[in-house]
Amino acid sequence: MICIDHYVTPLPNGMTMALRSTARGAVMLCRSGTCWVTEEGVYQDHILGRGDAYRPQGNGTVVVYALANAEMEVDRCAIHLTPGSPRSRWI
Q1: Which long-range contacts (CB under 8 A, 24 or more apart) does 37-41 make?
Q2: Residue pair 74/11 in contact by the 8 Å Cβ criterion
Q3: C-alpha span between 29 and 27 (Å, rounded)
Q4: What is the pTM of this model?
Q5: Which fold has domain 2-81?
Q6: Four-CA torsion 25, 79, 53, 23, nearest 10 degrees
Q7: Which of 7, 10, 18, 65 is 20 to 30 A from 86, alpha carbon to alpha carbon?
Q8: Distance (Å, whole) CA 46 – CA 68
Q9: How confident is the model at residue 91 (pLDDT cuts 50, 70, 90)?
Q10: Predicted local confidence at residue 47, as pLDDT
Q11: Rg of the chain over CA atoms, in angstroms?
Q12: How far apart are CA 30 and CA 22, in angstroms?
């Protein structure tokens, strides 16, 4: 696990990334492209486009999937999995 205060990562189309919120105020910002975001224990998924943000609601794992080439900015989270091959990692 890597705890981070601020991180920006490219996510090519079809790439997944899993992370966990570590503090109140955690936020994920889609800087470009389109991403699908789902959070463990939360029954509503979100589609983020450029400029859209998601704030995790709990301490569960959050999975981000790039629906198109994207760039994500992440604050106050812990990364548990590095980006994997397309469609390879699902919870």
Answers
A1: 37/62, 37/63, 37/64, 37/65, 38/62, 38/63, 38/65, 38/91, 39/63, 40/91
A2: no
A3: 7
A4: 0.77
A5: Jelly Rolls (2.60.120)
A6: -10
A7: 7
A8: 15
A9: very low
A10: 97
A11: 11
A12: 19
Q: How many CB atoms lie within 10 A of CB 30?
A: 24
Closest CA to 61 of 77, 76, 75, 73: 77
How far, CA to CA in Å, does 43 sit from each of 4, 57, 70?
26, 11, 24
Distance CA 54, CA 75 (A): 11
Are 72 and 63 in contact, with CB atoms under 8 Å apart?
Answer: no
Tens of pLDDT, residue by residue over 38-90, are 998 889 999 999 999 998 888 778 899 999 999 999 886 655 544 454 444 44
- What HEC string does the chain produce? CEEEEEEEEEECCCCEEEEEECCCCCEEEEEECEEEEEECCCCCCEEEECCCEECCCCCCEEEEEECCCEEEEEEEEEEEECCCCCCCCCC
